[in-house]
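Course assignment 3, question 2. Fill in each field.
Student: A.L.
Task: Predict the tertiary structure for the chain below.
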Amino acid sequence: MTILNLKTKNCMQHLLLKPTFDSFSLIEGEITTYNTFRIDGYIHKKFYEDAPAKDYSSWGDLREFCFHIIRGKRTPLNFRFILSLPKEDFKDFLTDQDIPSLHSSDIQGLYLNFKYDGTDLQCITGTSLNIFTMDKTLENIWDNYARNFFLKRDIDFESL
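Answer field:
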């Protein structure tokens, strides 16, 4: 787990106005403005005639909706979004990062937890596994991947 203090304006542009995080899955979100809006990113497949194969909506599918709630003259009181690398990308991630000790089915999620408290914006990285292991290799690699992801896209941050 790594805590990244983000430059709010810079990151908000990437989060809400650019497709930077669009490929990530939205696990859940909450935005507090004049009301509190909660979003469960889980796709209800019964709603569709031809349901998507994935379990969660992508951030790209819901980004504009979230932007619509947040935009205005006043900043939100707070928000939080839990994004994850999509499950269908776990296998490629393990291969690209050379982690042969795990299988994609061993991973529950590779998370970016965005939290805004009305003043400061943070991203807290996290991993969750479906198996028990004392090995922190995946966690360390995910933390480095997230830092590099932000750096490559010129998203300003300070590590705690």
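Instructor remarks: The chain has a mean pLDDT of 96. The longest helix spans residues 137-152.
Grade: pending
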